Amino acid sequence: MFITFEGGEGSGKSTAIHRLEQSLKALGKKVIITREPGGTPIGEEIREVILNKANTNMDPWTEALLYAASRRQHVIEKIRPALKEGTIVISDRYLDSSLAYQGGARGLGVDEVLALNQFAIDGLYPDLTIFFDIAPKEGLSRISKNAEREVNRLDLENMSFHEKVRASFLELKKRFPERIHIIDASLSPDEVFEEIRNLIPDLLRK
Ligand code: TYD
Question: How high is the pLDDT of residue 192?
């Protein structure tokens, strides 16, 4: 089982991922948590380049290619081998982030960015994608209250960029209706977790 979590800045997905990991481990299930960009040593180095606030002149296609390069390494080195041995893989962001941020918000085109990512994902779509939907304004105000979270290059985009990201995720739901599930991330952490529980009842049983 390969589950990805998606959502705008400050949507609370990290909290939910952590909780899901604890619940699965308590049931004795093998699970790994990983993230994008990153997830492997090479991917983490690529992450540094992409999110570095000093890289203000990065071309949008360079950005899309770097995310895809990080993803390719992630799939080959970590995700696929783990799935092969029966481990549940949960990734904080994956393919749909590229489709929404680079394809939609940056304007490169969802079809174009999906085509580029075929080389990266090598046929590996998630079994389930949970999108944490929240108004960008609310999400960003949550981040600014969280002093531990470092502000990155993408956070510095303006509000209309984040609105476009959200709209793109909602469009992606139409394209992949079976795979993508939307959760109202303005709900309390308990309510959000209850919704996740309802999406994967079998996984959360002994
Ligand atoms: P991160 O600090 O991991 O953000 P968050 O805590 O919000 O998940 O930074 C990742 C940033 O990269 C985030 O702003 C979303 C962006 N991103 C893309 O634009 N395209 C992608 O393919 C991925 C994986 C992330």
Answer: 96
Which residues, at least 6 apart from 186, have a Cβ–Cβ distance to it below 8 Å? 134, 135, 138
Residue 126 preceded by cis peptide, ω within 30 = no
Tokens of 154: 């993408």
Task: Give me the residues paired with residue 88 across strands.
Answer: 31
Between vectors from CA 70 to CA 64 and to CA 73, what angle results, nearest 5°? 140
Q: Whose CA is nearest to atom 2 of ligand 1?
A: 152
Q: pLDDT tens digits for 144-171?
A: 777 677 777 777 778 899 999 999 999 9
36 lines ligand 1 (CB under 6 A): yes
Q: CA–CA distance from 46 to each of 68, 71, 73, 172, 173 (Å)? A: 10, 10, 10, 26, 28
Task: Please state the atom number of ligand 1 nearest to the C-alpha of residue 105.
Answer: 19
